[in-house]
Amino acid sequence: MAEEMHSSYTHEPTVFGNYIFMEMGMDVTMKGMGRMDMKEMCNYEVKDGKIISERFYY
């Protein structure tokens, strides 16, 4: 669905116990929808050194 990628970023993660939080974003032109500046907060849960859950908030 992405027609053109203008930029993207991932901010440094913050760790709270078994949880990792970070902000990610991208500036992209989507087919039929135009240019969009999208940002999301990512939440990962870690157990025994592996990611067991991930949630994304827009």
How would you describe the overall organization of this protein?
- This protein has 58 residues and is an all-beta fold.
- Helices cover 0% and strands 79% of the residues.
- Strands 1, 2, 3, 4 and 5 form a 5-stranded antiparallel beta sheet that branches.
- Strand 2 and strand 3 form a beta hairpin.
- The two termini are 18 Å apart.
- The mean pLDDT is 95.
Describe the protein's topology.
Blueprint: E1 2-10, E2 14-16, E3 19-30, E4 34-47, E5 50-57
Antiparallel strand pairs: 1-3, 2-3, 3-4, 4-5
Spans of at least 5 consecutive residues with low confidence: none
What order do the SSEs take from the amino end to the carboxyl end, as H and E?
A: EEEEE
Q: How many DSSP H or I helices? A: 0
E-strand count: 5
**What portion of residues is helical?**
under 10%
For the largest beta-sheet, the strand count, sense and barrel status come to: 5 strands, antiparallel
Q: Output the radius of gyration.
A: 14 Å
**Anisotropy-based shape:** elongated
Structural class: mainly beta
Distance between the termini: 18 Å
Provide the β-strand percentage band.
over 45%
Mean pLDDT: 95
What's a concise summary of this model?
Helices cover 0% and strands 79% of the residues. The protein has strands spanning 2-10, 14-16, 19-30, 34-47, 50-57.
Task: Supply the key terms.
single chain; 58 residues; mainly beta; 5-stranded antiparallel β-sheet; 5 strands; 79% strand
